[in-house]
Amino acid sequence: MISSRTFQVLGNVGLLVLFLAQFSSLAAGARVFNNSPWTIRYTTDAGTNAPNLCHFWNWPSGGDKIVKCTQKNLAAGKTINLSTLDGFTYADRRYLCTGNFLTKGVWQHMRSGDSIRCVSSGGSNPYPICEVYDP
């Protein structure tokens, strides 16, 4: 028979394992926090034989480049965890990302492991403001 003390220790170890598993899965991937009131588009397969095209302003091997990608939407106010994030854009409006105003539909390339958080600028003519960070 298992004593209550043994059960308590095993329970605490189990909670620790679950916590560490969650933490390690977040650290290995990327997150998109779309805290803006507009839909964001993201891709996880830029440069592959995908069905869509993405126009990146900051492609790693030479800046401005159009590559094949799969474009996916993330609704306003939503967050998603991904194993990888290659880039994002707002298809219908200009946006500010890391100090650069980007034209609608122009993609921001992401480094491996980077995540983004986007919010509204507020005011009478609001636009998305996005911050790229390494979690």
How would you describe what is shown here?
The protein has 135 residues and is of the alpha+beta class. Helix content is 19%, strand content 41%. Strands 6-1-11-12-8-9 form a 6-stranded mixed beta sheet. Strands 4-3-10-7-2-5 form a 6-stranded mixed beta sheet, with no helix packed on it. The chain is globular and about 40 Å long. 23% of the residues are buried.
Beta-strand residue fraction: 35-45%
Placed side by side, the strands forming the largest sheet appear as: 6-1-11-12-8-9
Summed over residues and divided by their number, the pLDDT gives a mean of: 85
| Cα shape | globular
Largest sheet: 6 strands, mixed
- Round the Cα radius of gyration to an integer and report it: 19 Å
**DSSP, total strands:** 12
Count of individual helical segments: 1
Share of helix among residues? 10-25%
Secondary-structure element order, N to C: HEEEEEEEEEEEE
Structural category is alpha+beta
- In the predicted model, the low-confidence regions spanning at least 5 consecutive residues are 9-27
For the record, give the distance between the C-alpha atoms at the N and C termini, rounded to a whole number: 44 Å
